[in-house]
Design goal:
The protein is mainly alpha-helical and 111 residues long. It is 86% helix and 0% strand. Helix 1 packs antiparallel against helix 2 and helix 1 crosses helix 3.
């Protein structure tokens, strides 16, 4: 049950961070006036949710961060595709594979 809670916290945190960053980017570069302020504020709220959820996950911070980085890379690719219609190229896929493997090493390697 503990790992299900951890997984849920990570999914919510990664989605909130990815969409929060994307929303702020849209506000900065694609909106003007009140729509710009609303987008930036909405992105800030999502980033707050990210911070809360990551820190509520019931694992030591050192272990959760590695798994979070791996999860973040995967979720960010999905968000980038749906928000900006951009597919990852070869360097992103290779670098991302290294990120995922590194994150899993940090989280699961017992010293």
């Amino acid at each position: 049950m503990k790992y299900l809670i951890v997984f849920a916290c990570l999914v919510v945190a990664t989605v909130a961070e990815s969409f929060g960053d994307a929303t702020i980017r849209i506000g900065l570069f694609d909106k003007t006036g009140a729509a710009r302020l609303a987008a930036i504020f909405g992105g800030a709220v999502l980033l707050l949710v990210y911070g809360l959820m990551l820190n509520l996950a019931p694992l030591p911070f050192a272990r959760i961060v590695g798994f979070y980085i791996a999860t973040l890379f995967l979720v960010w690719q999905v968000v980038t595709f749906f928000t900006f219609r951009t597919l990852p190229n070869a360097p992103i896929l290779v670098g991302g594979a290294l990120i995922v493997v590194g994150g899993l090493v940090v989280s699961f390697w017992k010293a």
